[in-house]
TrEMBL record:
It comes from Cystobacter fuscus (strain ATCC 25194 / DSM 2262 / NBRC 100088 / M29). PROSITE patterns: RADICAL_SAM. This is Radical SAM core domain-containing protein. Its cofactor is [4Fe-4S] cluster. The keyword S-adenosyl-L-methionine applies.
Length: 439
């Protein structure tokens, strides 16, 4: 059994304004968090899907290897040739591509099948894979039981696990990080989830498809952290991958319990403004959170309403940023440009808010909306998509669809203006942080 991590065309150079912004962003981040760095020409994080699939395969009795091609050129023939040399006819190869390497994955898969290999393709792009693209396509959440059924039926075929609206479940499958030990010292942080999915249904979000919140079993959480200590002992910064920190009280309690006697770790979390209250802030403080990311797509409440995102008045938003800052945490705003409903007036409101909150917000993660297949907006926008070259589906690139109220060029220029304004805000003379570098 072979798990395949393909390279990403998006590791190529972004627009120079984006490149320059993140150069200074990274320097400021590193000045506050000792040991933080941006890998050159490599993945910024562990490919977590590998650990999750490896854990499931181990659970059902399979041995596996990792073919990690994340740092090689994204060329289909070269990738296929490498994999053919590492395998033999009948071998099973598993892939989970993202948008940017989806076309590459399909090309490699077809080449492998032509040489007698069996390919299993899953992940967030699998809904766009056809029957000739892989020996087996899996859509939706995967479990050890589903994986066993796929492999024992000897392929080919299609499996699909639909999301169930609402409710909270529990995940008890243990990820196995053994195959990822080659990343020791090569990534600036580790990612850990105490829950998966989200109960919000924002139409622009790729996690809205899950429609459920799955809390990770406390024993699984402890098992993962023990692996971190054993395999990545140098790591001190952990990104809590829960889409909305505080949405599950059980998930927060589990995190506090597992790290109660591990004070050397520091944390980055992301959350929704509606979840920020005194109880959540106190939990963040107890855990050791140093950075809080909050989604701030637009200051236009009408656009948020059209996007099915619950929202508050910008004044309340600003006060909650201030509350986090007063508690000693740095706030990073996740600013999402390029929403299909955005107008010039919406953009101006957002620019005004960024300026008004410049003394509270520390940094800005800047994204341009991409209509990934699992976002609720995808079927709505499908006929408006003009660029189906998935290597161009980048969150730092121009829109691949026609917005409703302006041209593609206007939307892209607005994103670049956000980059320019954010760069000017983090580069202001005299701007410094009161938080000492975390060692």
């Amino acid at each position: 059994m072979h798990i395949v991590q393909l390279p990403f065309p998006s590791l190529s150079e972004p627009h120079e304004a984006v490149r320059d912004y993140y150069r200074d962003y990274s320097a400021r981040f590193a000045s506050e968090l000792a040991g933080y760095f941006i890998p050159e020409g490599a993945l910024w994080e562990l490919p977590l899907w590998v650990a999750h699939i490896a854990g499931m395969l181990k659970e059902i009795g399979y041995e596996m290897s990792l073919a990690d091609m994340s740092t090689v050129p994204a060329e289909a023939e070269a990738c296929a040739r490498f994999l053919l040399e590492q395998t033999r006819p009948g071998s099973v190869l598993m892939m989970s591509p993202l948008a940017q390497n989806f076309d590459l994955a399909l090309s490699v898969s077809r080449m492998l099948m032509a040489e007698g290999r069996q390919t299993v393709l899953g992940g967030n792009m699998a809904t766009l894979a056809g029957p000739k693209d892989a020996s087996h396509v899996h859509r939706g959440q995967v479990s050890a039981r589903v994986l066993a059924e796929i492999l024992q039926k000897k392929l080919p075929g299609l499996t699909e696990v639909p999301g169930l609206k609402g409710g909270i479940g529990r995940l008890d499958s243990k990820p196995d990080y053994t195959l990822l030990t080659g990343y020791k010292g090569r990534v600036p942080l580790l990612r850990l989830n105490a829950s998966h999915g989200c109960l919000y249904a924002c139409s622009f979000c790729g996690d809205a498809w899950s429609r459920q919140l799955h809390v990770v079993d406390p024993a699984v959480l402890e098992h993962e952290v023990q692996q971190f200590e054993r395999l990545f002992p140098e790591a001190r910064l952990i990104y809590i991958g829960d889409k909305t920190f505080g949405q599950s009280q059980d998930a927060v309690k589990n995190l506090l319990a597992v790290f109660a006697n591990r004070p050397h770790y520091k944390f980055i979390v992301q959350t929704h403004v509606l979840n920020v209250n005194e109880t959540v802030i106190e939990a963040m403080r107890r855990l050791g959170v140093v950075v809080v990311e909050m989604g701030f797509e637009t200051a236009d409440s009408e656009v948020l309403k059209e996007s099915s995102k619950p929202n508050l008045d910008v004044d309340i938003y600003a006060r909650r940023i201030q509350a986090l800052t007063a508690a000693g945490m740095k706030v990073v705003l996740n600013v999402l440009g390029g929403l299909p409903q955005e107008r010039a007036a919406s953009h101006e409101l957002t620019m005004r808010f960024l300026q008004d909150s410049r003394n509270e917000a520390w940094l800005y993660n800047l994204y341009n909306f991409v209509p990934y297949p699992l976002t609720p907006l995808f079927p709505v926008l499908r006929e408006r998509i003009h660029d189906w070259n998935f290597a161009h589906w980048r969150e730092d690139g121009p829109p691949v669809f026609q917005p409703y109220h302006q041209t593609v060029e206007q939307s892209w220029n607005q994103f670049l203006e956000k980059v320019h304004v954010a760069h000017s805000l983090i580069s202001r003379p005299g701007v410094s942080s009161s938080m000492e570098a975390v060692s």
